Amino acid sequence: MTFHEGSLLVGREKEQKFLLSLLNKKNPLSTCLVISGPPGCGKSSLISSTFKVLEESYGMLWVLVSCLESFVGTQGVCGSTPSRYLLELILQSIKCRYLPTSDVCVRCDDTSSFVDNLCQILLTIAAERNNGPISIGLIFEQAEKLCDGESLVLPLIVGLGSIVNEKLCYTNSLDTPVLFTVLVTRLPWEKFNFGTFYFEPYVIPIESYSREQLTRLLLSLSPAGASESRFKRFVDLLLTVCFPVCRNAGELIHLMNINWRAFDEPVTKGLVAPDDEWGQWKLAQPFLKRSLATLYLRHYADASVDSVSPKNATRQDFLELPYITRFLLIAAFIASYNPVHLIKNFCLR
């Protein structure tokens, strides 16, 4: 089956076609795929767009699981370890999406009960749908967090598809479901040093966007009513200033949204002619450079253009620190009052 170019993700058409060729069968090429790439290269958008196409075209089922949710702040919650919380989160996510009214068990005390309950859930889904064999993908976002769990968690997730599929083969079900996992991570697979796995997953590296890809991506997000030629000049100006230091698509889209008004307002107010490229560049350049100086900081104090003008700059001379960083700074300040000999003794331990 071929897919229309318009249904593919802008800037990631090649990678999406390759993923579709791997997964558009009832039995995927591998029971575990690893999608790795730097932040802002479109991994999450690529996965969600691809699986939506597969769901519409082939009826493939898929569930998104956040590893960050499982391994941050779950220690001691309801007596669960992060690893156990992850396993129960997998079962709960599948049940909530495809068996919301069922009473299947989503609790597990160990990996054996987890595999048994997962097989039971998959068989229940296949029985309710009753339209031939089904494939279901478990997508693990921020999979590098799996390294923070117990030593057997990552090998279990990597080999989960083969373990479950082998167990399902011994059932008397006519339409045996097929399970596979997808790990989405910003780290290369070589960083997952957990010894020898039962088998190595199929790794698909995703590179950062090129300038041509980012141009097409930003142009596809043009505001309603924007002049096509003027917006194209704005995107070219934005990438000229920001692309050498930032290829993160999310940040560039944010910069586009907050700076387009600064580029367009002088034209709408009659300060410069629509075809005066130099005049538009001269008026917009200070705003772009100021945005570049605060890259990744995301100031939301005032969305208007006037709020970033020099006369109002004093209102924005602050920096919102991350939650944990505040406590680290407070702890460092308190520790600065410790006597020198105590610090020396502590460092020599």
UniProtKB/TrEMBL annotation:
The protein's name: Orc1-like AAA ATPase domain-containing protein
GO CC terms, sorted: nuclear origin of replication recognition complex
Family: Belongs to the ORC5 family.
Domain ORC5 lid: 232-279
Ranges where the Orc1-like AAA ATPase domain occurs: 9-70
Entry superkingdom: Eukaryota
Organism lineage: Eukaryota, Metazoa, Spiralia, Lophotrochozoa, Platyhelminthes
Alphabetized InterPro entries for the sequence: AAA_16, ORC5, ORC5_lid, P-loop_NTPase
